[in-house]
Design goal:
Blueprint lengths: L2 H4 L12 H8 L4 E2 L1 E7 L2 E7 L2 E5 L4 E7 L4 H8 L1 E6 L5 H8 L12 E2 L5 E2 L5 E13 L2 E13 L7 E3 L2 E2 L8
Antiparallel strand pairs: 1-11, 2-3, 2-6, 4-5, 5-10, 6-9, 7-8, 9-10, 11-12
């Protein structure tokens, strides 16, 4: 690889990167898209989440990151359990529903209650049912380690990807 193929536009500077620079540069890393759901005394709750990873096989642990200033994560944290619903590429409507802070996310949505007392969303690629194992504050987010309780494979579609601020990965134009 050459420097031209790695960094056509340099964003290096002596100071800490701005939030805009972080968003632009980190957007070069494609991520999957999930909806993290939970249920408390006020009803079902959930939020769109791109920060999701497997951490350990023994014991089975996963990682999610959530804005601790948001409305959904504090409610889920209190219950101690959550479900990570991994979206497929045709579920942009579900992503939009849970990615917005407006409206009722569960209005007119068919969902099931898992045996772990968390909402399971319909037709997703897979689900990871977990309990809160540990939480670390990191800037404006919490890094949540979840102990996996159960795994569900639901369908075998292509995953929804988020890349460069958009859903999906477009093929580069041929010269």
């Amino acid at each position: 690889m050459t420097a031209e193929t790695i960094a056509p536009h340099s964003t290096m500077s002596a100071g800490a990167p701005t939030p805009d620079a972080m968003r632009r540069v980190m957007g070069q890393f494609a991520t999957g898209v999930t909806i993290v759901t939970g249920l408390d005394d006020d009803g079902p709750v959930g939020f769109a989440c791109q920060s999701f990873a497997s951490v350990s096989l023994e014991p089975p642990l996963i990682l999610i990151c959530a804005d601790h200033r948001g409305r959904a994560w504090p409610r889920i944290r209190e219950t101690g359990r959550f479900c990570v619903n991994v979206l497929h590429e045709e579920q942009s409507d579900l992503c939009s529903r849970f990615g917005s802070s407006k409206g009722r996310k569960y209005d007119d949505l068919e969902w099931e209650l898992s045996r772990w007392n968390t909402p399971s969303l319909p037709g997703v690629l897979m689900r990871v049912h977990a309990e809160v194992h540990d939480v670390h504050v990191a800037g404006d987010h919490d890094v949540i380690i979840g102990r996996v309780l159960e795994l569900d494979t639901v369908c075998e579609e292509r995953p929804m990807l988020f890349f460069r601020g958009k859903f999906g990965i477009e093929a580069p134009a041929l010269s």
